[in-house]
Structures are given as structure tokens and as C-alpha cells.
Design a protein that fits this description.
Length: 429
């Protein structure tokens, strides 16, 4: 016997379209596996006449999204329209009126997740967001449920497929950033406005969500330190490779005695590190804790079909809860906590300098680092006549010490340019 649950969708784009296709045309497979008949009761879009490549019955379509939320036949609202407004108010209204909500909207969850989860709790319904991070990779439920008993110490990964695709092509083909970005936009891998991806904002939203779930302390997306990949140049990629590194845009969340630090930035990853081999649009997330050691979650981080699988899993979970009449499975509790000042967070650093090629230069440079307690791990130099390119990798040191060193180096007459400063990610001390 199958049990019927009404589903309303807010959005029928890349992700919503893939989900609707599964709900309408593959409903038998879902019913056979779950005993649930998930019935689409309404679909909100901006333009009802747009060709979507799928046959959505006309009577289901509306350009008034509140109609879907207020439809009494809808028990589960799937928000896949994106953005903060009107998505936030629609989700809130759905929850307040006792409907379960499933969303893929990382921007909304990072900005208003805590508030909306509280609304859900007060209403006794669930707000699920597996699809908001990692596309088709199950990472939200493992963090919030399977690993609820673990004291997670860090979550580190590649969570933005667009930037990983761009970096992969820059590294493997030696193609310049602007050229790869333009092609990614042409192929639909990057948005027409790529700022959220290349500037690190999308990854920062995901890092905030992962950190909140991992550490039980709510982290607002806009408080996550972020640097994008826009300034990465082929010359640095080439030099980094000679030293045994490749660039990745990393999301890093750490919980230590000093507090919680959450950041997104490009980092040079050793070529033998597992994250170095994560290519193209694939995502990969390491979760570490004292009892589990290290877990790796990897797979397709975006795309309509993988993301629809994550959404469908949440819809099925919500439907089961509704039919069982149970209150939401596990409750996620969040403390309020302070994030560490990024200036105090330590990293290893890679620097590329243009310096005078004469005796004594290296000693003066080393003295500047020494004055600011930054210890040099390795040095590599290539002469070019009167000047030389100097590559340095430091041991762990706080950002503020590194910044002071850079200021000191820039003031030296033998240093004509501190061309590049990048963090180095490695598990070694
Ligand atoms: N694309 C991915 O691979 C991916 C992966 C994971 C998560 N997500 C998240 O999933 C969400 C949707 O992404 P997407 O790529 O599917 O976006 P999309 O292709 O742009 O689709 C958005 C849909 O929402 C509709 N819509 C937008 N604003 C609306 C409004 N005010 N009223 C009614 N309908 C509205 C659009 O209608 P029209 O079609 O008429 O314009 C469209 O159908 C976002 O939060 C995104 O971050 C996406």
C-alpha cells in the first residue's frame, strides 16, 4: 500500500526541473522503494511560458509562489528558487503553517538558517537542506546525525565545483584565468555573474553551514573570512608546481582551544595530498575527529541530477515523518559562539618575491621574517640577470605576523616586489 503526500515546488530551473522529472515520471520507482506516492501539487516559476524541456502539466504552474505555499494539498514545500528574497519569507510561511520544507539554498541557510530552524522547531516540522552543500554528496545528514556523538575538530574541503573546474583547467592546460572563466560561462559551468563562485561567497555559505553542524555553534555566512581565486596567476601555479603544490579553493572550519575559525581561500595543496587529485566540478570534504580519525566525502558537488537526488532523499524523509506523525527526527541545537579573529589564525605561507640578485639579499630577507617570528621552511631562487625570483615557504605562523613580514619586506630596497602571498595547506607540521 502506498501513502500519498503532496509536494509543492518553488522553482523549476536546473535543480527543480530535475526533481520534477523524478517526481512525475519516475514516481513508480520511488513508490516501490519507499511506499510513498509523492504527488506534485504546484510549481512556482517566474515565467510560466518558458520552455523547460520537461512536460509540466499547465495546471500545476503558477507565477505566484505563495499560492504553492498556501495550497492545503501541499504537505512538503521544496524551495529551489535560490536567493534570499522572496525565498526566505516563503520558507518561513511554509514552516509556520505546518509544512515541512526542503531546500537547496545555501545562501538562505547560511544567512537565516538558525532563525528558520527555530521557526521549524516551534512549528514541529522539519527543515531539511542536504542539497545545500555538496550537491549529490550526503554530508549534512552524516554531520548532523551519524556524527552527532563525535567531537568534530575540523571540516576541510573543496565545496565549489566552478572554481575547482577553473583551477583544474588552469593547472592542466596552462590556460589563463580569464579564458577558462569565459569558457566555463559559455558551457554553463559558471554563472553569467560569477562573483559568488570565484570570490568565495558560495563556498563561504557552505563552510558556514558545515561549521555550524560540525561544531554545534551557529556561524553566520557573512562572518566567514573569504578570499577568491581571481588573483591567481599562471606564473604562481607554475612555480607552485615546481615546489610540489597545486592550488585549490579550500573551505576550512576548525574547532580548537582558541575557538572556532572558518575561512575560504585559495591554498597550495601538496601534490600527494588527496585534495590535490580532486578534479573538475567534483567536491570533496574531510571531516576529522578524535574517534573517527578522518572521513572523506566526495562526489558531484552540483548539477541538476545529483542535487535532485539529495532533495528527493530529504522529501522522502519529510514524508515519512509526516505520515508517522512524529516530530522531527533529531533536533539540531546551536550555541552562540565567537569566531576567531582571522589575523590570529595560523597557516603556512608561500611567497613569491622579485629581489636584487646579489650577495647578502637572502640574509636581509631572513632577518625580516625573523623579526616577526616567522620561520622559513624552504627557499628556492631563480636568477634573471640583475634580479631574481625568490620563492619561500614558511612554517605555521599567524596571519598578522606574516602581514608584518610582508610590510617589512616591501620596505627593503633589495625587494622590488612581493608579487604573491598564498596559504599552503598540508597535514605536516
Ligand atoms: N544548479 C546547481 O547545480 C545547484 C546545486 C546545489 C544547489 N543549488 C541551489 O538550488 C537553488 C536553485 O538553483 P538552480 O540552479 O536550479 O537555479 P535556476 O536554474 O536559476 O532556477 C531557479 C528557478 O526558480 C524560479 N524563480 C526564481 N525566482 C522566482 C520568483 N521570485 N518567483 C517564482 N519563481 C522564481 C525560476 O523561474 P523561471 O524558470 O521562470 O526563471 C526557476 O525556475 C539555488 O539555491 C542554488 O544555490 C543549485
Amino acid at each position: 500500500m502506498t501513502m500519498q503526500v503532496g509536494v509543492g515546488l518553488l522553482g523549476a530551473g536546473t535543480v527543480g526541473g530535475a526533481l520534477i522529472h523524478r517526481l512525475i515520471f519516475e514516481s513508480e520507482a520511488v513508490a516501490a522503494k519507499t511506499g510513498l506516492e509523492l504527488v506534485v501539487k504546484g510549481v512556482a516559476v517566474r515565467d510560466k511560458d518558458k520552455d523547460r524541456g520537461i512536460d509540466i502539466p499547465a495546471h500545476l504552474l503558477t507565477d505566484r509562489p505563495f499560492e504553492v505555499v498556501d495550497n492545503p494539498d501541499v504537505g512538503i514545500v521544496v524551495e529551489v528558487m535560490g536567493g534570499l528574497d522572496p525565498a526566505g519569507e516563503l520558507v518561513k510561511r511554509a514552516l509556520e503553517s505546518g509544512k515541512a520544507v526542503v531546500t537547496a539554498n545555501k545562501e538562505l541557510m547560511a544567512a537565516r538558517g538558525r532563525e528558520l530552524l527555530e521557526v521549524a522547531e516551534a512549528a514541529g516540522v522539519s527543515l531539511l537542506f542536504e542539497a545545500a552543500v555538496g550537491g549529490g554528496i550526503p554530508i549534512i545528514r552524516p554531520l548532523s546525525e551519524s556524527l552527532a556523538g563525535e567531537r568534530i575538530t575540523s571540516v576541510v574541503g573543496i565545496v565549489n565545483g566552478t572554481t575547482n573546474y577553473i583551477l583544474t583547467r588552469m593547472v592542466e592546460e596552462g590556460a589563463p584565468y580569464e579564458e577558462v572563466l569565459a569558457e566555463a560561462q559559455r558551457l554553463g559551468y559558471a554563472e553569467a555573474d560569477p562573483v559568488a563562485d570565484v570570490g568565495g561567497g558560495d563556498a563561504a555559505s557552505k563552510a558556514a553551514i558545515l561549521a555550524s553542524l560540525a561544531f554545534g555553534t551557529w556561524v553566520d555566512g557573512d562572518r566567514v573570512f573569504r578570499e577568491g581565486i581571481e588573483d591567481l596567476r599562471l606564473v604562481d601555479i607554475d612555480f607552485a608546481r615546481r615546489l610540489g603544490y597545486t592550488p585549490k579553493l579550500l573551505a576550512i572550519a576548525e574547532d580548537s582551544e582558541e575557538g572556532i575559525a572558518v575561512r575560504v581561500h585559495p591554498a597550495l595543496v601538496p601534490l600527494d595530498h588527496p585534495l590535490a587529485s580532486v578534479r573538475g566540478a567534483t567536491n570533496a570534504v574531510f571531516v576529522s575527529g578524535p574517534s573517527i580519525g578522518e572521513l572523506l566525502f566526495t562526489g558531484p558537488g552540483a548539477g541538476g541530477e545529483p542535487t535532485a537526488t539529495a532533495l528527493l532523499g530529504d522529501v522522502i524523509m519529510s514524508a515519512r515523518e509526516r505520515l508517522a506523525g512524529t516530530q522531527v527526527r533529531s533536533r539540531i541545537r546551536f550555541a552562540s559562539g565567537c569566531l576567531r579573529d582571522p589575523a590570529g589564525v595560523t597557516a603556512k605561507w608561500f611567497l613569491r618575491l622579485t629581489v636584487a640578485d646579489r650577495p647578502g639579499v637572502l640574509a636581509r630577507i631572513a632577518a625580516v621574517f625573523g623579526r616577526h617570528q616567522v620561520s622559513i621552511k624552504s627557499v628556492w631562487q631563480e636568477g634573471r640577470g640583475d634580479v631574481a625570483t625568490l620563492l619561500l615557504v614558511t612554517h605555521e605562523s599567524p596571519e598578522q605576523n606574516l602581514s608584518a613580514s610582508v610590510a617589512g619586506l616591501s620596505a627593503l630596497d633589495v625587494v622590488s616586489e612581493v608579487a604573491t602571498v598564498l596559504r599552503v595547506h598540508s597535514d605536516e607540521p
